[in-house]
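hey can u run this one w/ guanosine-5',3'-tetraphosphate bound, need the structure tokens asap thx
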Amino acid sequence: MSDSSTEMALDREIAMRRTFAIISHPDAGKTTVTEKLLLLGNAIQLAGDVRAKKTGRQARSDWMAMEAERGISITTSVMQFQYNGHVINLLDTPGHEDFSEDTYRTLTAVDSAIMVIDAAKGVEARTRKLLEICRARDMPILTLINKLDREALPPIELLDHIEQELGIECAPMTWPIGSGRSFRGCYHLKEDQFTEYEQGHGSTLHAYPCHGALESDDVRAWLGSDYDEFADELELVRGASHTFDLEAYLAGRRTPVYVGSALQNFGVDHLLNQFIAIAPPPQERETHTHAIEPTESDFSGFVFKIQANMNPRHRDRIAFLRVCSGRYRKGMRLRHVRLGRDVKVANALTFMAGERTQTEEAYPGDIIGLHNHGTIRIGDSFTEGENHAFRGIPNFAPELFRRVRVKDPTKSKRLLQGVRQLSEEGATQVFMPIASNEIIIGAIGALQFDVVAFRLQEEYGAECVYEQSDIFTVRWIYADDPQRVSEFRSRANAQLALDGDDQLVLLATSRANLQLTEERWEDLTFADTREHALVDSQF
Ligand code: G4P
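ok here u go:
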């Protein structure tokens, strides 16, 4: 292929791609929506497949067995499917007990998100936190208000709630007629058209009947005595709410809102059609020197997640890499930038609708899995020879903490090695207080402590005791003047620790304690995320 036709092919592949995640509180319907998206993309034939895989599939390792035993949902990390000429990469954000820092970090590897809200509950805690992370990146968000086939809060109240709680403007795109037993369907505000809800079509694709305009006789006849009330409500909605604005959506300020019932496969197609039309294709990504455009011909990408123990005999780990520019070809040589080492990548994996296969090629927005024998870390960049390192794949301050002590003191070296290695995988972090010999593990989801306990024992032979800790949160400390950091270090010694990469952190015991320290040392930065170190002489 000539250079220009290669470029055109790359442009075409980029324009086709959409890489996104679903954010929601547990039980709002993320898995059900995922399933219906795969059904619409013909990646599965019958709803129920994803759920079956969630529970039935894995017995590949002890660790997986542990997950299965506890009935924890294990969805596949990446699902690629096609829909109406688009290639869609859906990245899973672990949600229930498997909620972890990976959930947050996955949001750094997508270009947009779909927020699913339970119509009976409105905005819930987890959604708030996840949306905060999206908002910090000005990420475009589409919203689905789900479970309209059940009794729901009044939709106007729901939109108000979303706007107030999340600080994002709502632009209703479809509007429900009733909910629960009286759910009749929805109205498309822009198209002036109705879709009628019929029960019992949840597990397959179903063409729900359409009705014409609000003013049509057909609609008056169909809605009957519900008509007047609905028309009044609509007038109110039109008067009081924001309209769709592409620019405001792309800037992350306004979210188009759809309604539906994922369980009944009603309304998810409206959302998906809009999603492929307006969601951004792969976007540029910042490195420590400049922004990389996806259209650049040289390959580049970053690792945002490491999944361990797919095969315990080989201690196999898969590093999930988001392609940022150029094209991956099987067998190509890639530079592992942090190590300054070139490696041949012959067996990267791709994740078509959740099945792992070896990939021949991949484009910006795609996720490929690299086999990792312990050298790859979260945040690592791979390029076609250039030394740029991507930014914005941080560690997040953990929300839960445990003190860990090894039962047999002769094994303390193993413990240290284990907790450090596990923290490189990114689901937990380790902190070593400067003034003591303690080891503290931090996590975002409580299950991660069980995982650490299990793996430290199984893989490192370190049986440990885990104790509650009085740490409220951590902050990474930075300053323009290194002298100030030294002063802080000597004055606040008892409250400081080093993380797994020997970066200085404050261990705050309460919100008040944190605030007080921030006020006292106002020229220092107390960051709740940490960028990964480039750790290489080249920088
Ligand atoms: P999650 O991944 O966000 O945690 O939610 P998930 O899709 O697993 O859905 C949580 C529960 O809500 C499931 O019920 C699911 O069937 C139900 N659900 C999801 N979408 C809808 C909807 O549109 N309408 C109604 N009525 N229910 C919905 P479950 O009883 O916990 O699980 P299951 O027994 O159905 O598998």
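The two ends are 36 Å apart (CA to CA). anyway lmk if its weird
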